[in-house]
Amino acid sequence: MSKLSLVAYTFGVLLFIVSCSLSVFYGYKVVTHHLPVEKKVPDTYKYHFVLVPEELDNEYWRLVESGAKDAAKKYGVLLEYSGPKQANIDDHLKTIEMSAASKVDGILTQGLSDEQFTPLINHVIAGGIPVITVDTDAANSLRLAYIGTDNYYSGYLAGKALITDTNGKANVAIITGTFYANHQQQRVKGFQDAVKEAPGIHIIDIQQSEISTVKAAEKANQLLKDHPEINAFYGTSALDGIGIAQVIEKYKKQRDVYVIGFDTLPETLDYIRRGTIKATVVQQPYEMGYRAVKMMIDIIEGKTVSQVVHTETRIMRIGDLPVSVMHNKEDNN
What we know:
The chain is of the alpha/beta class. It has 11 helices and 12 strands.
């Protein structure tokens, strides 16, 4: 055997011995060592609910989520908050379908469109999963209960407030979140019925913002260009008033144009204290979320619940702002 062959042979033997040694060592470790075992999550929840909002990152729906999660924590419910990132009716419906397919114990959702939501809600109910509508009702469906604003009445309140604040004389443009959503339609209808009582109020045009501050601002800007006679705006979603206010301040028309919006998002309150938004319709999103979870539990446990629960709705003006908001005004002056 040559010297080179002997070296190769010796190296091969050593490599074999090392390999065997490692195999024996790790084999021993496998046998004697307790490998990690997947921990089973304790079953600490009584029920599993899904809350499906119109838009996940909408500040208004975050308030609904906050109330629902607080109730879920109190009553031992696993609550999922799932839905479209931006308002999209197809994604909304798909989320409901997926939630039902996963056999959750209850679904909390809006009833945005009778044509599309009613058959789906009825299908989910027929499959044995209870459904409660929140904020926006699907009154023609088999949903077991509704909790939220009386949207027609809220629109009517907005119309009456505008009549009072403008002394019954205004050329109004309406910017609504969407034309297809039940609650937006009702807010417009209530407003229209209210201002019919004032012959000096004229509705010039109605546009939709697609639940977008940017789109609301774009529509407000175009409306002012197309109709210079407009001296009042009514925004029917939480983001519409904010978008309108941005345009009013851009053109420095705070004294010339009356704006009434919806909800009490921080930006809305800021525009009210600055005098850009003159009034807003106050809803109770936190209460809607909280009470919806409790209602669902009661339904599952066979307790009697009211089929329709309307949360409080009122008008807020600068004199009604919380003291903390007014203090911020003083601090910024």
